[in-house]
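User: Please fill in residues for this 369-position structure.
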């Protein structure tokens, strides 16, 4: 199996060498985008196979070699457990339907690395602490475990953040059901009710300060302003390419909802696109960042330069876009479409801020009586 990655080729060679001394062999099969890994146990004239989940695949690229090595180490550990079981009872061992022995934390880690959303990374980080950074089999997970995790997480973070972490963890477990690792979600009834919270956004004066600030962090300045003018999420910005922009329209697939959207671009947004074309004439990507978390780090530095006193994270650009639209007479139904909300209730949270902005404007009128 030839690859262009020397270290990955060496990894495959080492696996083949190890197989010669084992009863259970680790097999690697190339498919279109990655490498499927499975175990092969030949006994009584028949092959017994164990396929790992879709999330547990080798990538085979130079930049993913460390993740590939860690996955193979995890699979070796699982194979070694089965080898010991063979020694104790060679006739009764079956690899089939043993998916609950898979490592839940390794599965979660793979998903959060691919997703790169801060909520996934935060939830995973707290799960690691909760489980004392040890491997956790799916078979260990039950309602009681996640009730304990709920109690732990509510002491560590705010209510809404904790609620979000549970939603994400529940989604990971639902994916494990689709991958046929488990049959039921052990935390389907473990929930935290979120509470109403204030939404931070930039008003027109704040935006002017951001626009006028001279900085070396021009990449994050342009990216953040583009999100303020379009409502795009950070994950969508990270993957944005120039070929998605035609006739002053942006065509993109939202990473969160996986829905394709069309968004008209105003003059401010188009000005930023033209500037980014000049900055990266030989690149397909509009904005260049090493990682999504790195965007927030750069933004915090830039907003300090811009003397923005509010507690602003990248997602506040989306709030800013929504409030600006409503303040300037765009109907809530259309704003909901711009934001890609599946339900208009998600957009209605911004209405109260529009009322407050109008009150500020009204208070500018002089008192006559």
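Assistant: Residues filled in for all 369 positions:
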């Amino acid at each position: 199996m030839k690859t262009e990655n020397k270290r990955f080729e060496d990894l495959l060679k080492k696996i083949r060498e190890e197989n010669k001394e084992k009863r259970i062999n680790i097999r690697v099969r190339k498919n279109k985008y990655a490498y499927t890994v499975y175990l092969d146990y030949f006994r009584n004239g028949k092959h017994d196979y164990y396929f790992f989940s879709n999330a547990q695949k080798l990538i085979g690229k130079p930049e993913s070699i460390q993740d590939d090595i860690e996955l193979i180490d995890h699979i070796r550990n699982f194979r070694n457990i089965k080898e010991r079981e063979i020694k104790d009872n060679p006739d009764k061992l079956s690899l089939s339907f043993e998916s609950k022995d898979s490592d839940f934390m390794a599965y979660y880690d793979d998903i959060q690395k691919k997703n790169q959303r801060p909520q996934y990374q935060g939830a995973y980080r707290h799960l690691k602490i909760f489980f004392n950074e040890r491997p956790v089999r799916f078979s260990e997970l039950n309602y009681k475990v996640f009730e304990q995790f709920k109690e732990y997480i509510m002491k560590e973070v705010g209510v809404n953040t904790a609620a979000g972490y549970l939603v994400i963890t529940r989604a990971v477990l639902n994916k494990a059901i689709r991958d046929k690792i488990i049959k039921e979600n052990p935390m389907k009834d473990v929930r935290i009710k979120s509470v109403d919270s204030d939404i931070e956004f930039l008003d027109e004066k704040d935006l002017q300060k951001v626009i006028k600030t001279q900085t070396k962090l021009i990449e994050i300045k342009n990216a953040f302003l583009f999100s303020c003018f379009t409502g795009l999420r950070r994950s969508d910005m990270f993957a944005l390419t120039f070929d998605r922009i035609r006739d002053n329209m942006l065509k993109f697939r939202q990473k969160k909802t996986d829905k394709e959207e069309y968004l008209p671009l105003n003059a401010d947004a188009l000005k930023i696109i033209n500037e980014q074309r000049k900055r990266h004439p030989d690149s397909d990507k509009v904005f260049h960042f090493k990682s999504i978390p790195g965007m927030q780090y750069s933004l915090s530095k830039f907003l300090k330069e811009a003397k923005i006193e509010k507690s602003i994270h990248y997602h506040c650009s989306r709030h800013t876009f929504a409030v600006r639209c409503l303040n300037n007479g765009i109907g809530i139904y259309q704003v909901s479409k711009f934001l890609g909300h599946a339900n208009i209730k998600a957009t209605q949270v911004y209405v109260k801020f529009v009322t407050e902005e109008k009150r500020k404007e009204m208070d500018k009128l002089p008192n006559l009586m």
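For context: The radius of gyration is 25 Å.
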